[in-house]
Structures are given as C-alpha cells and as structure tokens.
Design goal:
The chain has 10 helices and 16 strands. It is an alpha/beta fold. The strands form 3 sheets. Strands 3, 5, 6, 7, 8, 15 and 16 form a 7-stranded mixed beta sheet that branches. Strands 11-10-9-12-13-14 form a 6-stranded parallel beta sheet, with helices on both faces. Helix 4 crosses helix 9. The two termini are 13 Å apart.
Length: 339
C-alpha cells in the first residue's frame, strides 16, 4: 500500500510503501477512495495542534472507501460495502462517556482520533474499529462522502446553537471550507437574506458568491453591528474579538473554528452582563455522525458540489501541491483521490 507518513519528531511528511495490513478480530480494513485535508491537519503538520507524541503517523480523519477485509469477530459489515468512518470514539468507562460526552474523554475523544493519534486515511488502506464504520447510503458518491466528518461536526454545532429561527441575523466569520459549509447549512434550514459572510480574502469572498446563496459577503472592515448570532469558522482570536461588539442584546457567539492553543480573546464582562451574551463552544461530533450522513443526503445534490465549494482533488504523490494550494488560499479544501 501507499501512504503519507508524518514524522512527528522531525515534522516531515513523506510518501512511503508497505505491506497491506491485516485487521484484528474487531477491525475493518477500508480501501480508501477519498480522504480530505482538514485545517487541523495543517496545524498538526506545523506543530501547533496536539497529535501522537512520537514515531510515524498517517494523518487523515475525513475519508470514505470500500471494505476490502474484515476481522474474524466482525459480524455486521461485509467486504464490498461502501462506507464512511467516524474517526472519534470514547473509552465507554469514564464519567464523561457514561453521560454521553465522549468528546471530553481523556482516553478517547480527540485524544484517540483516527488520523491524529492512530493511523488514518492518507493511505490506500486504513484499519479502523468496526464500531466506527458507517454504511454509505445508496445514491451518495464517495467524493461527497468524504465530507461526512465535517458535516457531523456541523450537526453537533447546530444542536448546540439552536434555536436558529428563520429571520435571525447571522454572521459567519471566515469563508474557508467550514465557513462555506456553515453557509450552506443555514441556507438548507431556510435562512436567506439575513446571513452575512465576513472574509478578508477577495478570492474567498468570490467563493461564497459562487455558491449562489444570495448572502451578503463583506470584508471585516465593512461590518456593522446588528447580529443575533456569530458563527466563527476562522479560528482567529482577533476576528472573534472584533465580532463580539457587533452582537445584539441576547446575542450568541459560536466558537466553531479551531484556534491555536495560544490564541487569546479579550471580552468586556460588562458587555456580557448588559447584553446577556452567550459564548458556545463546539468540539467535534459526539453521537452526531449519523446526523452528518443525513446532512450528506439532504445537501448532496444542491450544496456539495466540489467545484462550487472550491474543493480540488489530488493524488497522494501530489501532496506538496495540495498543501501549497491550501496555504496560498487558492482552494477551500484539498481531497486526496485514491481510487
């Protein structure tokens, strides 16, 4: 098999080859079809996001594919089935897991994620636990299915910020792939003329217009107050800090974008008191992967077009081009096409 190997100590990435691994009794081997590059992956590569502490790691936590081998104890999955993989799980033993918050689990959650702490989908083959494999519905393409994991995170965010009623004035910060997907999600739920997307880069502002959602698109300098909800998709402390004063009384800030652990946000407590502001954090996708698949089905034909979303596919060997295109802002997302 071919795979991209990240040397955690040296912070180097290289294309390697090895024998195809054999799944353990409770594991499934997936022949990967499409595997996305997430913003978190970029942070891991530059050493600003926690991952496996030593040795080699195959990144990739957003992938679809076909089962080509199952372990001896696997009963509910078969070779040949098209699947998507939830990279996250819990230990099922700690207090967090037992109340349904496995994303806070010290041994699971983000601390045991496939593609971050265990080898993932930047490979022709990936070994994953049976319980983290989901069948892909009929009629949904493999390329679109590679977006299931981020959609499942959006589903968790949607649950956290509801109610989001039609007519609410919403500001989306950032027009990278997550900002574009959030814009589509809001549109899917009926929000039309009352959504504004803020983005400093002209090329990304053009990407929002390309979606045809009829949303307002502005640079940060053009923003004025009057928002009921701000959804941050930028991970930028200064962007969030500038957006808080734009909130109406009773307004909410949803922190969805993954910021650097060293980023700071300054807020005046008096304004939180006077306006009764709320800050809502969203961390991965606890028990919402099935909702991500439902969103995949609901959004596929209308919203999840790679061209409209400015997503470009690459082979594994083209990883330097893919990473450079992302860093330069030429595309919203890069996805490895392996089949």
């Amino acid at each position: 098999m071919e795979f991209l190997s990240f040397d955690v100590t040296k912070k180097t990435l290289a294309l390697r080859r090895a024998e195809v691994p054999v799944p353990a009794p409770n594991e499934v081997r997936v022949r990967v079809a499409y595997s996305g590059i997430c913003g978190t992956d970029l942070h891991i590569l530059d050493g600003t996001f926690p991952c496996k502490k030593e040795g080699l790691l195959t990144l990739g936590h957003e992938f679809s594919g076909t089962i080509d081998a199952v372990g001896s104890a696997v009963q509910n999955l078969k070779v040949g089935q098209k699947v998507v993989v939830d990279p996250n799980s819990g230990c099922n033993l700690c207090d967090y897991c037992r109340v349904g918050d496995y994303h806070f689990c010290d041994n699971g959650g983000i601390n045991n994620t496939v593609g971050i702490f265990r080898d993932g989908g930047w490979s022709t083959h990936a070994i994953v636990p049976e319980g983290q494999v989901y069948l892909l519905p009929e009629g949904v393409g493999m390329a679109q299915a590679a977006l299931t994991e981020p959609l499942s995170c959006l589903a968790h965010g949607w649950d956290k910020i509801n109610p989001v009623n039609v007519g609410l004035n919403v500001l989306v910060l950032g027009a990278g792939i997550i900002g574009l997907l959030w814009s589509c999600l809001l549109h899917l739920h009926g929000l039309r003329k009352t959504v504004t997307v803020s983005e400093p880069q002209e090329k990304r502002r053009s990407a929002v217009k390309k979606l045809g959602l009829d949303y307002g698109v502005k640079s940060p300098a053009e923003l004025k107050s009057g928002f009921d909800l701000v959804v941050d998709c930028s991970g930028s402390g200064p962007a969030m800090e500038a957006a808080v004063p734009l909130l109406n009384r009773g307004g909410r800030l949803c922190v969805f974008g993954v910021a650097s652990p060293k980023a700071k946000l300054t807020i005046e407590p008096f304004q939180i008191y006077m306006k009764e502001l709320k800050i809502v954090g969203v961390n991965i996708n606890p028990f919402t992967f099935h909702k991500g698949i439902a969103l995949l089905q609901a959004m596929a034909d209308t919203y999840l077009n790679y061209d409209k979303l400015c997503i470009k596919t690459y082979s594994l060997s083209e990883y330097p081009k893919a990473l450079e295109a992302l860093k330069r802002g030429e595309i919203s997302k890069a996805v490895f096409k392996l089949q």
